[in-house]
């Protein structure tokens, strides 16, 4: 019973800083009071910009102002006026190991606090999401998340919240957005309402390079990115990139997949020249692209 009571105590303590977020139709999602007057949640659960409400731990439902969303890390930040509730006690997700026990604490319906008990499935170093966001650590849960648990707090066995749960970053599995990532993205969303990332304005697909190209150009890799669409007036189009080109290098580094592109397009790259090597008509070509800032609602990378 001692272990069971300890778990219930953690859920109770963490639950005091967990809220329900009404930002979509039907079922609300969860959110966490990360700072005084600031709630973080999973961005994919926010489907409108106005009329967002938050149900607090005492049962009150109050209006919330959307500070910003970042689809790359799946984080959304809301501001609450006149609400002074204690934020969570945060921990470090990098301390987690596969097999560690964890508690997801949610508040997604009229029943109040809900908890899900499980183990950490796998962990790793910094990880770039398929949407281009950078997480400071890779933490996968052993299984998916129940409805309403996106935006929930994930607590370790010391009762510290190591991150925010989301179902949107890996198919069929729950992921944890580490606390370090939450801090960094929250700072940027509160400051300017968005997270800046570089933008080329290209749509691509990975392709295998012809053996003759690999031999002719002495390439130490055998894949590149075929350009299959260009954003009108985007940086790549302005630099002369054409549909059908195959990107092979960015600033002298291999361009084998979208991970290589995302790595070259951090916020520091905006406004800077990016040297691109590409294959066109079986010949190597080069061009310089001035990196733009990715539009917030644009599927091109």
List key phrases describing it.
single chain; about 300 residues; mainly beta; Thrombin, subunit H; Pdz3 Domain; 7-stranded antiparallel beta sheet; 6-stranded antiparallel beta sheet; 5 helices; about 40% strand; protease; hydrolase; S1C family serine protease; EC 3.4.21.-
Topology:
Layout: H1 2-15, E1 18-22, E2 29-35, E3 38-42, E4 53-55, E5 61-63, E6 65-70, E7 75-79, E8 101-109, E9 112-124, E10 127-128, E11 134-135, E12 138-141, E13 153-155, E14 161-166, E15 175-178, H2 179-192, E16 198-199, E17 202-208, H3 211-216, E18 223-230, H4 235-238, E19 246-250, E20 253-254, H5 258-264, E21 273-280, E22 283-290, E23 292-293
Antiparallel strand pairs: 1-2, 1-4, 2-3, 3-7, 4-5, 6-7, 8-9, 8-13, 9-12, 10-11, 13-14, 14-15, 16-23, 17-18, 18-19, 19-20, 19-21, 21-22
Explained architecture:
Keywords: Hydrolase, Protease. This is S1C family serine protease. The protein folds into two domains: 2-192, Thrombin, subunit H; 198-293, Roll (Pdz3 Domain), CATH 2.30.42. The model has no long low-confidence stretch (mean pLDDT 93). The protein starts with a helix and ends in an 8-residue tail after the last strand. The strands form five sheets. Strands 5-4-1-2-3-7-6 form a seven-stranded antiparallel beta sheet, with helices on one face. Strands 12-9-8-13-14-15 form a six-stranded antiparallel beta sheet. The chain is mainly β and 301 residues long. The protein has helices spanning 2-15, 179-192, 211-216, 235-238, 258-264, and strands at 18-22, 29-35, 38-42, 53-55, 61-63, 65-70, 75-79, 101-109, 112-124, 127-128, 134-135, 138-141, 153-155, 161-166, 175-178, 198-199, 202-208, 223-230, 246-250, 253-254, 273-280, 283-290, 292-293.
């Amino acid at each position: 019973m001692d272990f069971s009571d300890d778990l219930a105590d953690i859920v109770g303590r963490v639950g005091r800083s967990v809220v329900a977020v009404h930002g979509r139709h039907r079922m609300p999602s969860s959110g966490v009071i990360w700072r005084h007057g600031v709630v973080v949640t999973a961005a994919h659960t926010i489907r409108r910009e106005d009329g967002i409400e938050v149900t607090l731990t005492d049962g009150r439902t109050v209006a919330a102002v959307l500070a910003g969303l970042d689809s790359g890390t799946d984080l959304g930040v809301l501001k609450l006026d006149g609400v002074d509730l204690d934020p969570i006690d945060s921990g470090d997700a990098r301390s987690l190991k596969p097999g560690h026990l964890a508690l997801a604490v949610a508040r997604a319906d009229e029943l109040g606090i809900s908890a899900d008990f499980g183990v950490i499935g796998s962990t790793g170093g910094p990880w770039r999401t398929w949407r281009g966001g950078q997480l400071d650590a890779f933490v996968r849960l052993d299984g998916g998340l129940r409805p309403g648990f996106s935006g929930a707090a994930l607590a370790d066995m010391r009762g510290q919240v190591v991150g925010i749960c989301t179902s949107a970053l890996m198919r069929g599995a729950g992921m944890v957005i580490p606390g370090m990532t939450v801090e960094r993205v929250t700072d940027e969303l509160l400051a300017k309402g968005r997270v800046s990332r570089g933008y080329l304005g290209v749509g691509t697909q990975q392709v295998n390079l012809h053996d003759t190209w690999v031999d002719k150009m002495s390439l130490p890799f055998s894949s590149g990115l075929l350009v299959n669409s260009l954003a009108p007036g985007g940086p790549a189009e302005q630099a002369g990139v054409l549909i059908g080109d195959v990107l092979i290098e960015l600033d002298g580094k291999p361009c084998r997949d979208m991970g290589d592109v995302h790595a070259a397009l951090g916020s520091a790259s905006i406004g800077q020249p990016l040297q691109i090597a590409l294959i066109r008509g079986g010949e190597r070509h080069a061009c310089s692209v001035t990196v733009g800032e990715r539009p917030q609602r644009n599927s091109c990378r």
